[in-house]
Amino acid sequence: MTSPNGTSFSTGGEIAPMTLDSESLAQLQAALAKVEQGRGVLVRLADLMGGAVGQAAKMSLQGLGMAPKLQEKLHGLVEAAVTRAFDIAILGIRHEATSERAKWRDPAAQAVVAVSGALGGFGGVIGLMPDISFTTLTIMREIAEIAREEGEDLRDPDARRACLEVFALRSFPLGQSDEESELGFFSARALLRGRPVVMLIAEVASHYGIGLSRKFALQMVPVAGALCGASLNAAFLSHYRALARAHFTIRRLERQHGCVIRDTAAHMHSGQAADATAL
What we know:
By secondary structure, this protein is an all-alpha fold. Helices cover about 70% and strands about 5% of the residues. It has a two-stranded antiparallel sheet with strand order 1-2.
């Protein structure tokens, strides 16, 4: 726990000296909770996909896998969509930082990606490209808005690159020996630092494309395709929003406090582990 001046944190019977004030510590805790929230969305995504597969099995449908040529075409579409989103997502966004967020933004974005997914499900292959392009751009736009709210200057190439990193974070393991550890999130961020933008885009396209190819295959299930597309798009957006909020909150705290942020997170995690063992 923090002392009255917010300079220490107790973990498993040990007191770790910290330089964080109580407000910054609370913000770090909230950011790590967002990492867990994003992981929870991934679980719901898996459930949604599993449900669609079960529906296909009941209808005796085969071929949820994709032909190599179609898979290659999809990868090209995804890479083009990510590149385009990276180039134009910040257009029209005010560059000055603000903590204000319009109340209509979250439900409106959820609604439009859900509609895009539903239309993509109805449209089949024809609806694939518009759905991928629109949904990817919407997600990138939301990431950029969150970055600005957390104090990033979107005119800075590093800030724009950090927006792309949010997409790439999903492609890395969340941990090593403990896959549920928040510290895995820090490890993934460290792996991404310094990578050229072209490599980040390729990384994103490869792993983001795997999820989208599975989504596309499931959207081919008659009747269920539109509902599946709408639900999965909404879940993708929720996942990346949570990761973006965690990523840019931690970047802001690192600008203020440096590497002590990861050290504090490590002490917090070890304290939680000790409490769980005691129970």
